[in-house]
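Recap from last week: sequence in, structure out.
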Amino acid sequence: MHQIKRKDKLSQQEQSTIWDGIEGFSQTKVPATGRYELAFLLHDSEGLLLGGVQGNYDNFGWLWIDSLWVSAELRGQGYGIRLLDEIEAEARINGCKNSHLTSFSYQAVDLYKQQGYRVFGELEDYLPGHSRCWLRKNLV
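Predicted structure tokens:
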């Protein structure tokens, strides 16, 4: 008998198995989707991690930005924009024409808008007083 079990965090192998299963099914419907990881990290002179951006891109020309973070003491100094520029530039080199991400209204929606992203979906009061926004940008 098959069992469903709750798990708080997937192992790398479990995540890969799920992604590979999705990719295998998708290839029966569309050309290979592909999944290529990207990350850029911001360190100080002693190697302390102070920020980063991570995401992935696919064979359809889309960059997905999963997360972008800059430590509180460096915010407002342009590091978030620099990290965003780095991941977008690398995505362009690899054929991406578009980018998408999600952010909460209390996070970086305004920053993304200033960098050319536009909101295409919003769930108001996702948590009281705040929206969850989906944004996209043409990279070309």
